[in-house]
Amino acid sequence: MDDQKIKDLLNEIKIPEHDAHAPQEAMKAANNVMDGMKTATSEKNSKKFQGKSKNTGQTRKEPSFIERLFGGRPMSTTRLKAGAALAGVAAIVIGVTMMAKDQSAPYQSAMRPPPPLSSAPGQDVDPAYEEALKEKNKRRAQQAVSSGASAMPSPIGKARVPRPLTDGAAQLPDTHVPQDYVGQEEFEDFADSPVKLVSKEPVSTFSADVDTASYSYVRSSILLGALPPKDSVRVEELINYFKYDYAPADSVEEPFKPTVAVYPSPWNENAKLLHVGIKGFEPDQENRPAANLVFLIDTSGSMNSTNKLPLLQDSFANLVDNLRDDDTVSIVTYAGSSRLVLQPTKGSEKDTIKDAIRGLRSGGGTAGAQGIKTAYDLAQVNFDDEALNRVILATDGDFNIGITNNNELQDFVERKRKDGIFLSVLGFGTGNYKDNRMQTLAQNGNGVAYYIDSKREAKKVFGSDLTGTLYTIAKDVKFQVEFNPERVGQYRLIGYETRQLEREDFNNDKVDAGDIGAGHTVTAIYEYIPAGSKNGWMDENRYDQNAENEKAGETDFSDEIAFLKMRYKLPKEDSSRLITCPITTADVTESIDNISGDLQFAAGVAAFGQKLRGGEYIGEFSWKDVRNLAEKGLEHDPDGLRKEFIEILDNIGDAAKKQKIRDEIQRKQQEIQKLKQELR
Amino acid sequence: MTNLNDEQLAELVAEGHPDALRELISRHYTMMYKTAFKWCGKKEDAEDIAQDACVRVARYISSYNNSSKLTTWLYRITINAAKDYYKSQMQHRKDQQDIDDTPGISGNNNTEQTYMARETLRVITSLPDKIKEAVILVFWEDMSHAEAADVLECAESTVSWRIHEARKILTLELQEEGRGHG
Question: What is the pTM (predicted TM-score) of this model?
Fold first, then answer.
């Protein structure tokens, strides 16, 4: 028998899935041991200092990041539910994000010699572990009794029975920490938007960006005590994660109108901030068109981890709960092959849909060649011109579903989009977060994307914000701001580095830009130095100081600071519409204390993002200053997300400190490795 | 955590951070469970073994040094946990004679498997420990002999020899099965 035959035989063996709560139990047991060890260490220390210290030998358990965030036990589901309930309406985001994964096998390269045998675990049994085991056995015995079984239920047979969704998902940690490996995650490099001289470049053009991925990512990062890499921080996405109280639009025909404000820059006494915000029209859930949805779900083996498939199942159950009776859902999975799990089913048959979702199991490679095509074909079969036709792809990364070439994929999705089928991408878990690929698709504006890092985020996207998630009210939304050289000397746009457009792109309807869903808010903030100020970022030009005198227009624009133009297309239209709005001295507020807490909060988030990116333009503005500013926005916090932001701020010093130490350790380890090699 | 790979996470665990421990376990539990299942062929035993392995992670993480990949160390821990699990169970049997009440030891009704898969599993799980660990890592986990040697802390040639032995046993046992019932 050759090796391949043996391998084939082995691969035929089905490995049953472990109980959904088994990892939690293992964590609990392991945690008990860790606590026990801490106590032991602390006792040792207290003995050492006997007489000098009042230490009683009781160890003070350091609150974890997540504990600090939620102010309590991190694993508490009740707390989670309360938090999720708080998550009323929340800001959403547009654009597309793509998750991609490269599941590299755990063994790829030859490894260095193993540590000496002494490092292998010993065999003594831990009392804490014994305790946990006893508990577990007791529970199993109870299970056996309550199920009326005289013997232990067959382990494998049992695994086939669909478990209630809450069984697996409710026990997930509330906040999933990304599992990143250096070198496997990719972020596009980008520099901060540069300062522009109005005399040289008076016009600034960019595409709307309502992606949330960057914020979710930064949040998870800081909560685990690590600073996010600079290029993962897109300031506009952080700002746009939150919802602001901008003037609502009146109709679906003109789906948004601008809210503008000018106020002193909190971090630069010589500068002002020009704040532009829009809020997408928000019809009631009852008044939106019916939805024709196809879920395309990655069930490859790599999804088999607590923060992936179970969280995904929970997320979709959320969505199903919020569907209307006239919506339609189909489900396609892809792993080794693509599979139609659920024929188009009406939203009124919620139980049928949920059963199908619960029944999903992971296993096999990621190579379903037909996955995406099947999904789109299904959407096509059920296509309704009046409906919201959308494919929702859920994956932990690898978009390896038949069309592996990214360009080909973009083309495919874009073509389908022109046919009226939109795409949403949900990213789960992390470790292989291919942010640059997500961005590439986002730039092509082929849909909406979310990074689901927690049940809370799932509730936001599929619960309170479902209408916005499904219902695109405007596409190809572009902004253009022209600054008046009489009023403005220099300016810079905060964020939107990856969304820059050429000036001529603004009027070109062929140029793609971001989409806005119902109720989404988009914010753009410029910082500018008034004309004539000597304290700008750049020196003034010596020879064009008289330029303003040459101005000889009939109309007097001297009150205008800038002129805002926005273009958008209605979802079914191909030509754009224009909205314009002058920003004048009447929009200026002289003190930051006099603007709404809402805007101050946005400025705070802008400062936060810039600081994470290195804070090139924000001088000595401290984390404390950021906090003070953001706190002003707490009055308007229906979903609790702003409070969470403050808590993230409170963790940042800690994260920064740890990051520094970790970097130092890594550097030293590299040195040691180098020295070792020299030794050989 | 962008900046946290497995090895860095292990350091945080060694420092006593519960979040890091939780993250590490959630990352690798499935791998450990599957390895354990391959060892014993019983879901509930595999869960117990995986849990024991997780406890060992918490307990012995400080003995992990960065000279090999964390996953290598985790495979080793899991296999050791599996061996010890059955050692202690045997002890338990001698001491108490109440095997039937011990969860995991009773019935192993793998009805979901095909006949051939069930037979393969039976043959694999009854292999001698040293052959079994080599078979699991090389044939089932697709490791090279060198990689398996790292996990098992033995010479590469030892792995190769064990695999050679394994081929003989498996050919005998499995081909007979195939002929007898195929």
Answer: 0.56
